[in-house]
Amino acid sequence: MSEMLKLIKERRSVRRYLDKEVDESMLQQVLESVQWSPSWANTQVWEIVVVKKPEIKEKLAATLGKGNPASKAMVEAPLVLVVCGKKNSSGFYKDQVTTKFGDWMLFDLGIATQSLCLTARSLGLGTVVVGLFDQDAAGKIVNLPDGMELVAMVPMGHIAKDSGAPKRKEISEFVHQDSF
Questions:
Q1: How far is residue 14's CA from residue 31's CA, in Å, rounded to a whole number?
Q2: 120-129 as b/e: b if 16+ CB within 10 A
Q3: How many CA atoms, within 13 angstroms, populate the side-chain half-sphere of residue 1?
Q4: By residue range, what is the domain housing residue 118?
Q5: C-alpha–C-alpha distance, residues 19 and 27, integer Å
Q6: Contact, 68 vs 132, CB < 8 A?
Q7: pLDDT 10s per residue in the chain (180 long)?
Q8: 141 Cβ contact list (under 8 Å, min separation 6)
Q9: CATH code of the domain in which 136 resides
């Protein structure tokens, strides 16, 4: 199996972390994977806020809905990568949206987030992509400027408890030849 496919198959949503800092060189490799992620017309709409201060992580965790399984991870992980994107840039040409779906920012941020999660896994680190929270409240906590949108938060750290793979659909269940 290719190394990339192995990483994809082994990546998990990690919600338990060791009390151990993430080495700065590891963090830089993860951020470099975002830097080299593809984006619409090379717009590179991503902005990442690296949160290490416990008091800020606690405030961000408070924006998660009650019962969100990532609440503990937000505080326990040594750092949280706050994934933000520039609005009205990706998927636009001369200030006009060019796709049926409007702003392509979410697609670009999805690619960048997958890059960072796979790179973290390749370094022996765990991540979980958190999307269910009050984005506006979290944006205020990290001083998000106008024209930007906070899309996801990704706790990252050394894995305390890993889990097995969930059941996956068979390829034949989602692939269609020549038409749906």
A1: 19
A2: bbbbebbbbb
A3: 8
A4: 22-161
A5: 16
A6: yes
A7: 699 999 999 999 999 999 999 999 999 999 999 999 999 999 999 999 999 999 999 999 999 988 999 999 999 999 999 999 999 999 988 888 898 888 999 999 999 999 999 999 999 999 999 999 999 999 999 999 999 999 999 999 999 988 888 999 999 999 999 999
A8: 56, 59, 60, 63
A9: 3.40.109.10
- Residue 16 domain-assigned? no
Instruction: Return the percent helix, strand and coil in the chain, to nearest 5.
Output: 35, 20, 45
| DSSP secondary structure code for residue 80 in this structure | E
Amino acid at 87: K
CA 151/CA 36 separation, integer angstroms: 19
